[in-house]
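Customer escalation, tier 2.

The customer says the design service returned an amino acid string that "doesn't look like it belongs to this structure." They asked us to rerun it and document both sides in this ticket. The original structure tokens are below, unchanged.
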């Protein structure tokens, strides 16, 4: 019995070892465009970047726009320090660059079909427990300098409106774009 078992195991290893191995293919990454637009209710949210590839040290302009497209002439929205969040992921190093938010409640009136626009300034976060590579990377991004790499921008909005009966409606449309720094 033990000899038969060993013979079966040996044959199995031989068959498996002689089979043609398929090359492991990496999962293709999702390709994002330079501009992405999402609509939620009467609001259009657009996230864009001026071009897909930058050289290291070049200024990078990421823009978010919010446009009211409803029937009224204008609408009042309520949000924190900004209605926009810019969360970035650097995929080469797998670092997250979070977006901070001030917490005061701000009201803003949007005119129909007139976009409200903000440009990403900088972001980053680290603490005394962060690894040195992350600290150096974050210091650069916080100063507006993006090191070489591939970046995905997950942009979103976070605001609400109130009807005449003070019923709140929350809005959180989001969009994703990408860029490279060489």
């Amino acid at each position: 019995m033990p000899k038969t078992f060993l013979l079966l195991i040996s044959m199995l290893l031989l068959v498996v070892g002689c089979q043609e191995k398929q090359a492991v293919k990496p999962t293709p990454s999702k390709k994002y465009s330079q501009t992405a637009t999402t609509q939620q209710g009467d609001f259009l949210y657009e996230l864009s970047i001026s071009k897909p590839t930058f050289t290291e040290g070049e200024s990078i302009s990421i823009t978010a726009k919010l446009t009211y497209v409803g029937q009224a002439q204008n609408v009042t929205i309520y949000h924190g320090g900004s209605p926009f969040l810019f969360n970035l992921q650097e995929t080469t190093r797998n670092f997250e660059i979070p977006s901070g938010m001030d917490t005061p409640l701000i009201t803003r009136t949007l005119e129909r079909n007139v976009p409200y626009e903000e440009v990403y300034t900088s972001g980053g976060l680290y603490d005394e427990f962060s690894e040195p590579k992350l600290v150096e990377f974050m210091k650069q991004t916080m100063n507006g300098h993006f090191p070489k790499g591939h970046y995905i921008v997950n942009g979103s909005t976070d605001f609400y409106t109130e009807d005449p009966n003070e019923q709140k409606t929350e809005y959180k449309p989001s969009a994703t774009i990408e860029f490279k720094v060489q």
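Tier 2 assessment: The sequence is consistent with the input. The radius of gyration is 25 Å. The longest strand covers residues 74-90. Sent an explanation to the customer and offered a walkthrough call.
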